[in-house]
Write a structure and sequence with these properties.
Order of helices and strands: HHEEEEEEHEHEHEEEHEEHEHHEHEEEH
Mean pLDDT: 96
Largest sheet: 8 strands, mixed
Shape: globular
Strand content: 15-25%
Bound molecules: zinc ion
């Protein structure tokens, strides 16, 4: 069986550097923490940020810095005065799965057999159940050992940007628009664009390298809110509780039970369908908290979903008036599509870059958020490019070296496209 070819000679040239960087970056634990007030939510994220500053300076990019907003910023001059192109990826990984002690494995020239992860025999990447994997026989597949996530989300994006920047530094003759790079923290807890200094960044358009499947450009995200329902009960010693105890645990369960069973949940929806998702429940008889995320591509429907949770919580309170129910709603991010549509060249240039790497581009929608959604709403149109990583936020996360190399090549082509007249 022949090893899978690279998408282009440029992709082949970049592959070694992308892989080497990727294997180095995933070993650094950068797990973010939810509902932390501090910034960044975990100090360890900055370990990777500082390494990236060092590596950028070693490339000769002396202005690389870790700025006040906890982002790494660096610039690369263009070969002409074209619009300034921003490239963005995030150093943090999801709070949901541990990222400590990642031990990456490269399954070279993968033969198509199920990949058993050696650290946990229950974790198997079965091509029969993973069509994206099944299509990558002959690729070099990177996985974790099954006990941690891999961290391709978003260290694949970081390795690809770094390899592309290193290539551009080595090849000053290659045409490119002026480039600005940002590596952010806390994207996974919805705070990636917090304190992002758009003026200091100075890009006219930007791309996050935080997508997934080969050739995809995501131009549409959910609009998102988070909702916290706090139920105050009345705790009394169970021995003398008759007629007095108001059990917040039971009321929280009642609220969750009252949600629609066969619709409006992540497990029953796809495409543009929205949902309400109780993702965390905590507390005791005195006080219980149910945390929800609420998502929809349509802002009007998003309001309706949030209203549904509020109404159900109020009904719980009406049935047990001795309890006290509080609801806190926060806006997380907005669908970026309308902002991106204002500047069609942002999408056209990316599609052209993907084609130049020899890949058929696909416009995709994402059922999640990106830093780009927030930045787009703040005036910097920022769609999301593929990275080649798959099965994110899972110990079965994997990435194809060939696809990651194609993403790095896409970046080089992209800044080339932007250097050309519109
Ligand atoms: Zn990500």
């Amino acid at each position: 069986m022949a090893r899978a070819p690279f998408a282009s000679p440029l992709a082949e040239e970049l592959a070694g550097d992308v892989l080497e960087r990727f294997l180095r970056y995933v070993r650094i634990d950068t797990q973010a923490a939810a509902r932390e007030i501090s910034r960044p939510s975990t100090e360890k994220q900055l370990e990777l940020s500082r390494l990236l500053v060092e590596e950028l300076r070693e490339l000769g990019l002396a202005d690389a810095e870790l700025n006040e907003g906890s982002a790494v910023f660096v610039g690369l001059p263009g070969t002409n005065g074209a619009p300034v192109v921003g490239l963005i990826a995030h150093v943090d990984t999801t709070p949901d799965v541990t990222g400590a002690g990642v031990s990456p494995l490269v399954h070279e020239d993968w033969d198509g057999a199920p990949i058993e992860l050696p650290g946990d025999s229950r974790q198997v990447l079965d091509p029969d159940r993973l069509p994206e994997l099944a299509a990558r026989v002959g690729h070099d597949i990177v996985t974790s050992d099954g006990t941690t996530l891999l961290g391709a989300d978003d260290k694949a994006g970081i390795a690809e940007i770094m390899a592309a920047v290193a290539y551009l530094v080595r090849h000053p003759e290659v045409p490119r628009a002026p480039v600005r790079v940002a590596f952010t923290v806390d994207e996974e807890v919805g705070r990636g664009a917090e304190d992002f200094d758009l003026e200091a960044f100075g890009a006219d358009v930007a791309y996050t390298l935080d997508g997934s499947g080969l050739g995809e450009l995501e131009v549409e995200t959910f609009s998102a809110k988070s909702l916290r329902v706090t139920i105050h009960g009345l705790s009394v010693h169970p021995g003398t509780a008759k007629g007095k105890l108001v059990n917040a645990v039971k009321l929280a369960a009642e609220l969750v039970e009252s949600l629609p069973a066969d619709r409006l949940s992540p497990e029953t929806t796809e495409g543009r369908e929205g949902y309400v998702h109780p993702h965390r429940i905590s507390g005791n008889a005195e006080e219980a908290i149910v945390d929800f995320i609420v998502r929809d591509h349509d802002d009007v429907l998003l309001e309706e979903h949030a209203e549904l949770v509020r109404a159900l919580a109020m009904q719980v309170n009406e049935r047990e008036p001795r309890a006290h129910v509080e609801i806190e709603v926060r806006d997380s991010y907005r669908n970026m599509r309308p902002y991106i549509e204002e500047n069609p060249r942002v999408v056209e240039a990316a599609l052209e870059a993907i084609r130049r790497v020899g890949i058929e581009p696909k416009l995709a929608i994402t059922r999640g958020g990106t830093d780009g959604a927030v930045l787009s709403a703040h005036g910097l149109p920022t769609p999301n490019l593929f990275t080649g990583g798959q099965e994110y936020h899972s110990v079965r996360e994997w990435a194809s070296v060939q696809d990651m190399a194609a993403a790095a090549a896409t970046i080089v082509e992209l800044v080339g496209v932007w250097s050309e007249p519109a």
